[in-house]
Amino acid sequence: MFFRNLTLFRFSPAISNDLDRLDEALGDHRLRPCGPLEMGTKGFVPPVGRGDEAPLTHAVKACTMVTVGGEDKLLPGSVVNDELQRRVQKIAEEEGRKVGGRERKRIKEDVLNELVPRAFIRSSRQRAYVDKKNGWLVLDTSSRKSAENTLTQIREALGSFPAVPLAPEEGPRVLMTDWLANGNLPAGLALGDEVELRDPASATGAIAKCRRQDLDGEEVKEHLRNGKQVFQLGLTFDERMSFVLGEDLIVRKLKFLDVVTEELGDSHPDAAAEADATFTLLTLEVERLLGKLEEWFGLPRPAEA
């Protein structure tokens, strides 16, 4: 249940009250099986447990987790085009005529109607939780598109959910470059062993990526002297978690260190108790980190809905 990435949105205190009906609202938006001629479906699935009777939310104190599930048919375009071309060529050979655009379109529809029901189905799961006390929507993904799709599902279920992207008052790229170049890291924060540096002068500027490297070394400093800035930076927070922070303020490669995971223990009576303990620990640790991100970069919580 530990998240591996954090994509973040914020919402106002007024919205927090509306989230009390989240479990009820999701009931009409459960994931249903993909129909024979459908390419995909999306809906909510239980974050903990399985079956139609399992709840669609899992709450600990002010934090509530949801999971958006998906079923997508795997039908490569090349397979459709190959079958279409085979049928068009067969008509040309047997009937001695050229297939027009309208007929070609009809043949393609026939191909899809035959192949879609036989396509393999790929299942997906996207976890997220809302922190009603602090106004965070936290998604376990580094993909902005996936995050937006999940946010759309929540909005459709609630009717409205005006969570907004982060609006930092301090430029992340400038601040992280200062951390790396001058060692001006906030208390509790330490450099990791990964960085991505880019020349900000143009979109096609030089890029330097370093992994498993001493970030205080001369090679990194030389890139900084040549004008490159930090776009992603490996960090350790309070010796409890490591991650890579991007200039988009997406937290990637999140890993809780042994001192955290050892606090879980292994004496949980059942799966539900273990899920409660893990989610509690996750949200407490992430709450501390997000509070610091809010402080370092100036991430205001919306005042109104």
UniProtKB/TrEMBL annotation:
Q: Is Transferase a UniProt keyword of this protein?
A: no
> What is the annotated localization of this protein?
Cytoplasm, Nucleoid
Of which family is this protein a member?
Belongs to the RdgC family.
- Function per UniProt: May be involved in recombination.
What InterPro entries does the database record attribute to this sequence? RdgC
Alphabetized PANTHER family for the sequence:
RECOMBINATION-ASSOCIATED PROTEIN RDGC
Cytoplasm: is it a keyword of this entry?
Answer: yes
- Put simply, this protein is called Recombination-associated protein RdgC
Q: Which key words are in the record?
A: Cytoplasm, DNA recombination
